[in-house]
Write a structure and sequence with these properties.
By secondary structure, this protein is mainly alpha-helical. The chain is about 55% helix and about 5% strand.
């Protein structure tokens, strides 16, 4: 009987409202001036952009796309992107994405590749990406 109560409780959770809360929280933490999430040091947070891209796919909310584009443009144009050899440094030490922490991580670059190429280029075809 105790197991039945737990199952019925879990079935009452509204997954849509939980996802909407997650989106609202992300949008509250976005740096609308320089892109990205939060203040320095700034990490890529590729999964955040992936999540917002999926949300955009289902809702067509252009505001989500603007936030994603602002952030990914800032990363691609800034010092956190290695303009000589390609790839992204681990994180930016300042909030403007100018000064990188000179370390590259394969898993960061793999996630960024997926965000930029596999997802974003299909939605916002830009030469930059």
């Amino acid at each position: 009987m105790e197991f039945q109560n737990k199952v019925s409780y879990k079935s009452k959770i509204n997954n849509k409202s939980l996802l909407d809360k997650g989106v609202r929280h992300i949008l509250l933490t976005v740096d609308y001036q320089y892109g990205g999430v939060g203040r320095a040091p700034k990490f890529h947070h590729a999964k955040v952009w992936e999540f917002l891209l999926y949300k955009y796919f289902f809702t067509k909310d252009r505001n989500l796309l603007k936030v994603i584009e602002l952030s990914l443009d800032a990363m691609a144009k800034g010092g956190v992107y290695d303009h000589l050899l390609g790839g992204f440094f681990r994180y930016s030490t300042n909030e403007r994405w100018i000064v990188p922490h000179f370390e590259k991580m394969l898993y960061d670059n793999a996630e960024n590749f997926y965000s930029f190429i596999a997802l974003l280029i299909q939605i916002i075809p830009k030469e930059l990406y």
